[in-house]
Amino acid sequence: MIKPYKPWLIALGVLLLLIITNPSISAFKAFRGRDSYSGLKRPLNLFVASVYKEHSKKFIGFFGNFIDISNNPEVLTTPVVADTIKHDSTVYDTSYHWKPPVTDSVK
């Protein structure tokens, strides 16, 4: 009989995964497409996630990804426009099956 995993072992594995995938300041620099570290800061490093700052924008980094968490009023007050995708109303007949042309290749 196989013993079930202990909950603390699973929690330790998840914690270890978060620590390993916590992105570095050089990964943040590459994410922002910068050549230098000027203006880039990591004000908070929690080992499982980090907060990064570039001038007035703030990002949180975890699992190797970055999410913008700055309070940009322009983004917050932009109205959401419903259904901005142009839809094609053309209906195509899919019942037609292509048949190769018959050629007289044997003489």
Automatic annotation (TrEMBL):
Superkingdom of origin: Bacteria
Protein name as catalogued: Uncharacterized protein
Source organism of this protein record: Mucilaginibacter rubeus
